[in-house]
Amino acid sequence: MIALQTLGQSVHLASVETILAAGALVLLMIGVFRGDRSLVPLTWVAVGILALAGVHLAVVPSAGATAFGGLYVADAFSTFLKVIILGGAAVSMVLALPYLVQAATGRFEYPVLLTLSALGMCLMVSANDLLTLYVGLELQSLAAYVLAAFHRNEARSSEAGLKYFILGALASGILLYGISLVYGFTGTTSFTALHGLVRGAGTADLGTLIGLVFILSGLAFKISAVPFHMWTPDVYEGAPTPVAAFFAGAPKAAAMGLLLCVAVGAFGGMTVDWRQIVTFVSIASMLLGAVGAIGQTNIKRLLAYSSINNVGFALIGLAAGTREGVTGVLFYMAVYVVMTLGSFLGVLAMRGSDGTPVETLDGLAGLSRTRPGLAAAFAVFMFSLAGIPPLLGFWPKFAVFQAAIDAHLYVLAVVGVVASVVGAYYYLRVIKSVYFDEPAPAFAPADSRTNTALLTLAALFCSPLGMLAITPLVGAAGRAAAALL
Amino acid sequence: MNFPVLSAIVLLPLLAAAWVLLAPGSEDARAANARLTALVVTLIELGLGIALWLAFDTSTAAFQFVERIDLFAPFLSWHLGIDGIALMLIVLSTFLMPFCILASWTSIERRVPEYMAAFLLMETLMIGVFAAQDLFLFYLFFEGGLIPMYLIIGIWGGARRIYASYKFFLYTLLGSVLMLLAMIWMASAAHTTDIPTLLTTNFAPDVQVWLWLAFFASFAVKMPMWPVHTWLPDAHVEAPTAGSVILAGVLLKMGGYGFVRFSLPMFPDASVRLVSLVAVLSVVAVIYTSLVALVQSDMKKLIAYSSVAHMAFVTAGLFVFNTQGLEGSILMMLSHGLVSGALFLCVGVIYDRLHTREIAAYGGLANIMPRYALFFLLFTMASIGLPATSGFVAEFLVLLGTFAASTWLALGMTTGIIFGAAYMLYLYRRVIFGTNADPHVLAMADLNPRELLTLLPIAAAVLWMGIYPESFLRPLRVPVAGILARLHHAAAPPQHVVPAKGQLR
Q1: Which domain holds residue A234?
Q2: I need a surface site. Which of B214, B335, B336, B346 has the fewest CB within 10 A?
Q3: What's this model's pTM, rounded to 2 decimal places?
Q4: Torsion-angle region of residue A220: left (phi > 0), alpha (psi -120 to 50) or beta?
């Protein structure tokens, strides 16, 4: 930790963000001059920029270092999440191409906004100060509000954007209020300083505690945890499908990383205080996510509830508050992002014979007869999301349950497994539609080689073959957790 | 042994399943390829199973054919190995599989490659359960079995297949997840996921009770024990014939195997404490489900309830803590696997001809299908426990064991045997004897060579086990003695029985 650094050193350490910021501006310029027909090349340039940024993750010193006077930190923790963020954003860009071209909303802003959003997310997970956190979060959110309303001619999409914006702004307000309370009562916004100040239950005064509650509420909105989840199904349903895929993936991982930073990093001394909040939020999300999904007929809404449900499971690891728990959450988010992106890729691949997107659960009927490969991929994702071994999706759940048991949170663990059985019901419903029902009208064949390849990769990752990734992934997540704790 | 024979026997069906699914060609060619591949691979598996049996050393308590690769650290490792109990159940699984494929040869017409792939996957998971030496590897196989069975019931099942498939999946999943939590607790308390190490770990008796109950939740559902048996009749009735065979023949044995492998030796104190719970549930099950079986009008449902009753014998025998009871129970699992599998195949034979499972639709088959009547008689008698059939040896040993522990328990079990004879003979009389004027029934052809080929080997095995059970008992002896030693450690009743005293205890 060096207090005084040259600007050059700081910029070098934050090269990922620098590249993303510069890249986004360049993309914007190209787009402005070349117009919407540049969508496809711009997308691939944006992917290149994300990849370049990914390569620069290697400059992060393994011990971690701070920059910009302690506002910014680059360590194994942020690196782990940045890989997920950059990957998630890149896939979200690519998977949207056929959709955007088809839907005649192929505006060049899409890759630009996603790049800006990725920049915001990278800042979020590298935040070492409540203000950096806020700046990153807002940058990510503003881009997301625009993306939600990307189909600006369509009422559903505009409604989704507006709803997201109003509720998001409210959440940001709550978050800022919490930050100001914490600053008022402790005199600092730095994570490092807070970590030193707040030690053990009862050492923090009531104002700090209330501030923490507000901060957690604001962040719970971003990860769409109950009771701040109401926007999720509406926004996912209304937003264009590729945008919903993006929302469900990388931003969730980034916000979860942020929550870990704040809870375990900054307020690590108050674990006993926030554990009850996290436990409640976790149980409520798991149960509501599982029960709420049962009545859904739209697959995007169903996946929205699925993400609420999964966030609840990931929070079990946070409730444990141990290094093992943080490892579990990080592992969970890594696998979750792949499963979710895979499911949305599947949804994108479903188009009726006239090319219109199919979004209802009934529309999936008999998919296994008309598109066996796609159906098998769907089955893999659904069993994986339901957490049935030997599919990879089981193991993150396993990891967080292990953390909970080691932290003696037996009630939470039992509620968690029961919720996973309830949740299994609606994932089975999807498989039932796909495999058991008589075929609905035939589907159009796959329209994009890239998407098919991505779908295949995601399905292979979630299949039992993905278990070979357990050792490297958990190892990396463990190193990331060690950087935080 | 250098050749990883257990990995081979576990993974070969998986590879075959992948080939069956991905093979190119027209629909008919793929179907033919799927049937042939599945048959050949299951026969190779049977060969490997028999080779294991022949190469197995029955004199040692150590796990054999052990393989270990730390492939999935830190969560679990690829760790396989078998003892005599696992060996016999693997042989049973590999023995039944070719007949399942043969029984589905013509009766499955739609989506044949998927069907065969599901069965091959099922074989991998079944053998994996019995061969796993890592706690979570066991769980993986145990739970993974739900996926192919869910698809088998849901895609190729009867009219109420969707309800039955959901019930099967969610019921068993709910039981298993509690066991998962207990496993996680054990693994972190003992700092190992290694089953042989855990077998010698002594947990505190109070903790054992909780762990035992969590495992019980899973195994009791899988077994199934009364009152959590209700998924079984639905699943059996709706499943296609071969699905019922696997369900009754092997999947139910996973519950019994779980008791033998985990509950008894890992939690001996809890087992001794909770013995009355199991005894009461077993007696209720054996009498209640036998009475329920007596009034069924659907053949498959009747056999499903009889399975519950037979499984109650297994649980009763396991929890009397003596050699006869334990060996009898394991033999009962093997015998029931063969007999109920064969009975479901018998039902499948006439279902394929008349497309109904209603008992009332049949009658007079002794005249129309004499060869069929003969086989059905043999398996009915084996189910009742007639001497010279496998059922007799198993029931006799279990009764001997239970009698030593408690005469009241033995009384309940014997009542169950009498009821068992009643419902099976009643079934036989209604289906085989009497007269029938229905032209469709009269037109039914006797067993064709393929059906003969499926029933004949099972009949031979049933008689072999009934006449010379030593072949099957020998591999069990050492592991059973090991389990009893663990139980004795927890102050269990005397181990060996002298069946002479006639007073009520």
Answers
A1: 2-484
A2: B214
A3: 0.91
A4: alpha
